[in-house]
Amino acid sequence: MGNGLSDQILPSLPSFQALHIVILGLDCAGKTTVLYRLRFNEFVNTVPTKGFNTEKIKVSLSASGKSWRKAAFHFWDVGGQEKLRPLWRSYTRCADGIVFVVDSVDTERLEEAKTELHKITRLAENQGVPVLVVANKQDLRNSLPLHEMERSLALAELGNGTPWHLQSACAIIGEGLQEGLEKLHTMIIKRRKTQKAQQKKKR
């Protein structure tokens, strides 16, 4: 797997328009499960990522009512083991958005997840990059509620001007992923418009 291009939807959209999205999170949080649920729209049994997986995926996102907008995403799913985390910075450089996957059941590692999330968003090159925090495994009975996830991850204290959205999800069945992508896409487009407006003022 890897380097695949889904032509199930929007075959006319040029791949060069794909948004650069990096999927991060601690090991065993469900990052690769998220990636391949988006890619194939089915559960794919995965093993811990030793390096990275990459997929170009074309998606149809609802805008309002019955209207739809087209988007192409180039996802980079990077391993979450502690020894691989220093490499995250290389993948987030020039990223349009970050998807940070958190295991809602593994409460003992929430502090560790918070530390890594804040560390990556506070890098100078990542200032203002939109972040979609995926609260995975919300289908399980002992998962932490969203409001407690938000508090435990200190999302309100993310890097300067970092837009974020916390999305309840179950990667195995795909629940919440479409909604999360729509929120991320909206944040990215809003940031681009703001950047263009600022550039015009400088001229």
From TrEMBL:
Residue sites binding Mg(2+) per the record: 32, 49
Natural source organism: Salmo salar
NCBIfam families noted in UniProt: small_GTP
Location within or outside the cell: Cell membrane; Cytoplasm; Nucleus, Nucleolus
GO molecular function: GTP binding; GTPase activity; metal ion binding
A GO CC term attached to the entry: cytoplasm
Protein residues bound to GTP: 25-32, 80, 136-139
Keywords: Cell membrane, Cytoplasm, GTP-binding, Lipoprotein, Magnesium, Membrane, Metal-binding, Myristate, Nucleotide-binding, Nucleus
Self-association state and partner proteins as the record states: Interacts with CYTH2. Interacts with KPNA2; the interaction is direct. Does not interact with ARL4A.
The protein's name: ADP-ribosylation factor-like protein 4A
Biological role stated in the UniProt entry: Small GTP-binding protein which cycles between an inactive GDP-bound and an active GTP-bound form, and the rate of cycling is regulated by guanine nucleotide exchange factors (GEF) and GTPase-activating proteins (GAP). GTP-binding protein that does not act as an allosteric activator of the cholera toxin catalytic subunit. Recruits CYTH1, CYTH2, CYTH3 and CYTH4 to the plasma membrane in GDP-bound form.
Gene: LOC106588713
Classification via CDD domains: Arl4_Arl7
A Pfam family the protein falls into: Arf
